[in-house]
Amino acid sequence: MSKQESFNDHGKQIKIDLAIERLIASYDKGGKLMICGNGGSAADCEHIVGELMKGFCLPRSLSSADQDHLVTTCGEDAVFLGKKLQYGLPALSLVSHSSLITAIANDLDADIIFAQQIWGIGKADDILLAISTSGNSRNVVLAAKVARAKRIAVIGLTGEGGGLLAPHCDILIDVPSDDVARIQEMHLPIYHKICQSIEAYYFSS
Question: Which parts of the chain fold into alpha helices (H)?
Answer without folding.
Answer: 3-7, 10-28, 40-52, 64-74, 78-84, 98-107, 115-121, 138-149, 180-203
